[in-house]
Amino acid sequence: MDQVLWLFTLGYLFQSLANGILIYTISKQKSIYGLSVDSQWLFLFATLARCIWIFDTRLTSLPLASFELVINVLLGVICCYLSTKYSHTSIFQTPKYLSAYAITGACAVLCFLFHPGEKNQYFLTVQMLVSFTMFMECAGLLPQFVMMRKSKEVEIKTGHYLMCLAVARVFRLIFWVQLYMDGYTFGYLIIADLIHTILLSDFAIFYIKSMRSGKSILLPS
């Protein structure tokens, strides 16, 4: 089980790296061109939910997991602050149906219906927050992808940020596979992470081509 916990935590360490890259990029350029403010808030909400359900898991036995969570909360808050501060530099608006409010509401409903826990007499369970985190991280990419499709060109550092998120998802898919081999099945959560990975793998293809050619990351219309 310790190996599984390490896989889960390593994935989020790459997310910390992604946030660090994003903070550096925004601070240096003083612009969020090509970035979605809504995505940053959605990722932060997902991380804050982890602060609650982590105590209902074996992750509390791994000190690195607690350290990673604190770091990700701090970095997430900074990302949201900078994104909001420089929101006037964004030339594209996120569709209302993909706003942070709309997606948060949708994920709240989904996590009530689909989660790995057993509901108490109030039809609630802490495991609902596990689903909420996974669904929010998956759906949180949608505003960012819409933003990139509109701008058509992705800056290299933004590409690095998204690739770190892709690596984080790969680690978590390995985590789910390992759990499945150990006899645990979490179908809804696996599907959410699989969709998340597929979305990022599509971008990864253009990222790799760009790195090989030395040109900007151009996305199809």
Automatic annotation (TrEMBL):
Pfam families: ER_lumen_recept
Top-rank taxon, per record: Eukaryota
Subcellular location: Endoplasmic reticulum membrane
GO CC annotations, alphabetized: endoplasmic reticulum membrane
UniProt-listed GO biological process terms: protein retention in ER lumen; protein transport; vesicle-mediated transport
Keywords for the protein's UniProt record, in alphabetical order: Endoplasmic reticulum, ER-Golgi transport, Membrane, Protein transport, Receptor, Transmembrane, Transmembrane helix, Transport
GO MF, any single term: ER retention sequence binding
Membrane topology note: Multi-pass membrane protein
Transmembrane segments: 6-26, 33-55, 61-84, 96-116, 122-147, 159-180, 186-208
Chief subcellular location: endoplasmic reticulum
Matching InterPro entries: ER_ret_rcpt
PANTHER family: ER LUMEN PROTEIN RETAINING RECEPTOR
Recorded family membership: Belongs to the ERD2 family.
Protein name in UniProt: ER lumen protein-retaining receptor
Source organism (scientific name): Blepharisma stoltei
